[in-house]
Amino acid sequence: MAMALEGIRVLEFGHVIAGPFAASLLGDHGAEVIKVERPNQGDSLRKMGPQNARGLWFEVSARNKKSVEVDLGSPEGAAFARELVESADVVIENFRPGVMEQWGLGWDDIHSINSRAVMLRISGFGQSGPYSERPGFGKISEAFSGATNLTGYTDAPPVHPGYSHGDLVTGVFGAFGVMLALHERNTSGLGQMIDLPLYEGLFRMIDWQVPFLEVLGIDSTRAGASFPFAGGFITEILPTIDGKFVVVSAATGKHVGNVMEFLREGGHLEVEDKGDVPVSVIKEALGAWLGTQNSDEAVDRLKSVGVIAEKVSKPSDIVKDPHIAARQNLVAVESAEYGKFAVPSPVPRLSRTPGQVRSLGPKLGADNKLLNAPPVNADVSPDLSPVGVVEAG
């Protein structure tokens, strides 16, 4: 079955998460992704997380890619990289600004070699500005963007999300930027450079924080499970008697009213007037009721009276969920190292040209012969730490 990006070649000079995730999203929809890796070591993600001989995280995240080992510091390796650029539609990198220039692969070089190539440049703080030389990781981007300030409880320190939120958001915005540039190329015939700091996607998503400060004088901060400006909203995460957690989301006056009526009719909320009941009182009564309930029964009961609620899912819940199965949100893949297991299906879902998981993460240098890469010196393993890989999550 045809896929939307068949015929598009992507060169990925990426490490760990943000750049590789952008390339992975394109690969899911048919792009040929060639991952250029440092000799004898490869992407740092290969050695992160649980693993046997091969890292499981890398197996999953580097799906639909080819791998070539290239010593970019050697004349032969640099020449080979430039040959790849000649046939590329997209070049993705996520080093600190200036590193690609050291290898003769900066934007001016790429554009000179192939004027149609689009270049996505992901870095901690961007290619310009007083902080551009600073190294950056996903968690730094979350802090700098204001996202970390909003995560956690008012009377406790901020907390990080339990996954690489900043890196992955950047990967999504990066893939979006690539598609915009490819679309524009249909008119101009020219590629362009996309300058994407790790923090800017998050900053764009929290679009209300600065206007609230400048117009209303509100310097927003974390408010637990609630929005900082929730007011009359209910967005609680509450424990149940079986050790689970239930999220109740009442983001309109109607749904808050449904919660209040349910609690009143059940005798869990004692108020004489149906009018102005403080939301804090409703939340307290809701928490007290849920604390005596089984999670499945509580969610069913709430839904039956027009209250929007769901259990907080763990992986062991996800793999058994009938909706996940019906939507085919997981697809089984075969790994030589780990056998058959499930991975997330491509997103978004296209009706006529859906994406596919065609392969798992490649062995280091698996495609050197296929792509006629130059031989790699067994003693060469460039240490990129001084120049700064920009994200590890």
CATH superfamily of the largest domain: Crotonobetainyl-coa:carnitine coa-transferase, domain 1
The overall pLDDT average reads 92
Which residue ranges are poorly predicted, with pLDDT under 50 across at least 5 consecutive positions? Answer: 382-393
The end-to-end distance, rounded to whole angstroms, is 35 Å
Kindly report the spatial arrangement of strands forming the biggest sheet: 3-2-1-4-5-6
Rg, rounded, reads: 25 Å
CATH fold category name of the largest domain: Rossmann fold
Strand-pairing-aware structural class: alpha/beta
Shape: elongated
Domain count? 2
**Share of helical residues:** 25-40%
> In this structure, how is the largest beta sheet organized?
6 strands, parallel
Task: Give the helices and strands as they follow along the chain.
Answer: EHEHEHEHHEHHEHHEEHHHEHHEE
Q: How much of the polypeptide forms β-strand, as a percent range?
A: 5-15%
CATH class of the largest domain, named Alpha Beta
Number of strands: 11
Helix count? 14
Task: Give the second-level CATH assignment, the architecture of the largest domain.
Answer: 3-Layer(aba) Sandwich
